Amino acid sequence: MQRSPRRCALLALLLLVPASSVGAIMALMVAPGAIGQAVLVVTKIWMLLLPLIWLVWSDREKIRIPKPGVRELFDGAIVGALMFTTILAAYGLLGKQWINPVEVRAKAQQVGIVTPLVFLAGSIYWTVINSLLEEYVWRWFVFRQCEVLVPGMLAVALSAFCFTLHHMIELSVYFSDWRVVGLGSLAVFAAGAIWSGCYLIYRSIWTCYISHLMADWAIALVGWHLLFG
Fold it and tell me: Using CB atoms within 10 A as the burial measure, which of 110, 119, 143, 170 is most buried?
């Protein structure tokens, strides 16, 4: 019996996309601490392994890592510089008035961010490594599955929506001001759409990764200012 590509793509999304929200809910809301962190780790491992399993088992493709081109890296740096500037400008114009640093520090302490060294270590991981893993999951895998379901820009919007879901949960935990949560969610959706658009053009995650890294760098600088500034 021949498999329907659309059904396979929908199944792939249903198996992967909710995992990020489950991990965030458990770690930040239901069971903060060892249990929640354990669930979070399991969901992240699942999200990293599923695309590879799907590639070999369902798509029957070989695992390969394409080399980045100069144009991809250059365009990624341009997009990243624009994101970097936009994030810092938004924080300077609105974030300083809307965000309560005391509230953010309390939430950070709950998840173990208690010293500058811990924050720096976490920032390096999230900026350099996690941004690459997210591009592998959300653009290389999720966006390609969305493309099977809907064409072109609709796939860009759908994958950006999937990418935004768990970030909305995280934002709602760290910030009580609905303006911060709303604007932050909109910014995440826009960033996800831009990165999916980059993947649509280049068929490579490298442009997405470079710009994602620079955006996360700006967020790390904002976080440092809120926690230790």
Answer: 143
In this structure, is residue 4 part of a structural domain?
no
Say how many domains are in the chain. Answer: 1
Nearest Cα neighbor of 43 from 14, 58, 21, 23 is: 23
Does residue 143 sit within a domain? yes
CA 209/CA 207 separation, integer angstroms: 5
Per residue of the chain (229 residues), give pLDDT as tens: 457 889 999 999 999 999 999 999 998 889 888 898 899 999 999 999 999 999 888 767 777 777 888 999 999 999 999 999 999 999 999 999 999 999 888 888 877 787 999 999 999 999 999 999 999 999 999 999 999 999 999 999 999 999 999 999 999 988 889 999 999 999 999 999 999 999 999 999 999 999 999 999 999 999 999 999 8
* Residue 228 burial (10 A CB sphere; 0-12, 13-18, 19+): exposed
* Continuous H helices in the chain: 5-25, 34-57, 70-90, 96-98, 101-110, 116-124, 131-134, 144-149, 152-174, 178-202, 206-228
pTM of the model: 0.92
Domain span at 173? 66-228
Q: Is residue 61 part of a domain?
A: no
What distances in angstroms separate CA 153 from CA 22, 57, 70, 146, one per listed residue?
27, 28, 25, 10
